[in-house]
Structures are given as structure tokens and as C-alpha cells.
Amino acid sequence: MQHGPSPRLIFSKAFSANPFGGTLGYTLNSSLTGKAKPNMPIDRSNTEPRTSGESRRDFLYLTTGTLAATGMLAATWPFIDSLNPSAEVEALSRVYIDLSPIAPGERITVTWRGEPVFISHRTPAEIAAARADDDLDLPDPEADHQRVQRAAWLVVTGVCTHLGCVLDGQTRLPKSALRRPWHNGVYSGQRGRWDGWFCPCHGSAFDTSGRVRAGPAPRNLTVPPHRFLDDTTMVID
Ligand code: FES
């Protein structure tokens, strides 16, 4: 013969009333062991309506927690703020380039944030060759005009997008200076079939827009953020 409500009934009532209250511990134990303790008093205090004192306590908890979080943020803000690059550091990473000595067809290399950046003063023929291939099925489709701010000036990071080798092609070497035959008849030191840049590591070739045209490189050469201050001054920042 069973006395009082079943353990499972007690559990479901208590849980719906207050899942974190003291009643849960007692009824859970009863449910798990299967041994009801009918004469043991049940704590119903958590099932009573909340008093105004409890509401005030909740409010104080909330207010105190909010103040503590605000205080912690204020205390750590100088440290967080120190992680932002200062104006001096940003200015140091900026590179100003005088373009006036670079003749059409010439390419120069500058270092920006530890990486080589190629600046190519493109000839009309190089621009035309790049734009003629805009509509081809390229590995990383991108129109030439999307990669330059002024058609005559291409600015790209000189690092292969496959595994990061520095590319050949900044200077047009005479045939006598070419090194050993390399991928598919292209010599190391040459610009490759599309007259752009060539990667001596695994044979990726790039065109005069810095777009990948052959080889394992997955993406076009990166165009770093840059702007023209006037017709002869460019800044990479
Ligand atoms: S690193 Fe350039 S093709 Fe592999």
C-alpha cells in the first residue's frame, strides 16, 4: 500500500515550481532511489508567491553585477586601448613612393610591413594584354580595372599565393643571365608566358595584372591598400 503521492509526481510538481530550489534535491533522490519517504515534510517555501523583499534583493544583485562589470571594463580599458596601434606606429608602416623616376615598362620593389611590394609602371601594350583577357575563364576571375586605381600603375604583393615564394620578373634579364630551365620551358628568372611574374618554386605564372594564369597558386596576387597623393606620389598604407 502506497502512502502519499508517488515519487515521480513529487518530482514533476517540484520541478515545474522551481527547478533550482531545495525541493528538487529531496524529490530527485526519492525518484532515483524509488524509495518514497511519505512522512518527510516537503519544503514548499519556493512555491510561495515572491515577496517584495525578494524582488528588492534581485534588483540589488542585478545592480551590483552591472556595476562590477562596468568597473572591470574601466579598469582594463587602458590595457585594451594600448593594444591598438598608435598613430606613430601606423605612420611608420606607411610607405611613400616617388613615381617620377620609374619609366613605363619598369618595375620596382618596396618593402611594406616586411613584405615585398611590386610596383609596375605598365606600358599601353601591357595594359591592353591584361584587359584583353578579362573575359577568359581565369582561375581567380577579376577584371583588370578592378585591380588598379590608375591603369598605368599596378601595385601587388610580390609573394606567391601558393606557398609564399618571392616571385621572379621584376627585371627583364638578358638571355645570357637566365638560370637553369625550369617549369615547362620557362627559365628561372623570367617573367613567364604572360609576361607578368613567375614563381620559381612550383611554376605558377601571373599576367601583367598580377592574376594567376597557371600553376598551383590559388589566387591572384594581393593588391595592398594604396592611394595616389598626386600624379607622382603614391602611398601604401
Ligand atoms: S610557392 Fe609559388 S607555385 Fe608554389
Characterization of this structure:
The chain is of the alpha+beta class and 237 residues long. It is built from 5 helices and 9 strands. A 3-stranded antiparallel sheet has the order 1-9-8, with no helix packed on it. A hairpin with a 4-residue loop joins strand 6 and strand 7. Helix 1 (7-17) packs antiparallel against helix 2 (22-33). The longest helix is centred in the first third of the chain and has 31 residues, at 52-82. The radius of gyration is 36 Å and the shape is elongated. The chain starts with 6 loop residues before the first helix and ends with a strand. Residues 1-37 have low confidence and may be disordered.
In short:
With 237 residues, the protein is α+β, with helices and mostly antiparallel strands. The protein has two domains: 33 residues, no CATH class; 147 residues, Rieske Iron-sulfur Protein (3-layer Sandwich), CATH 2.102.10.
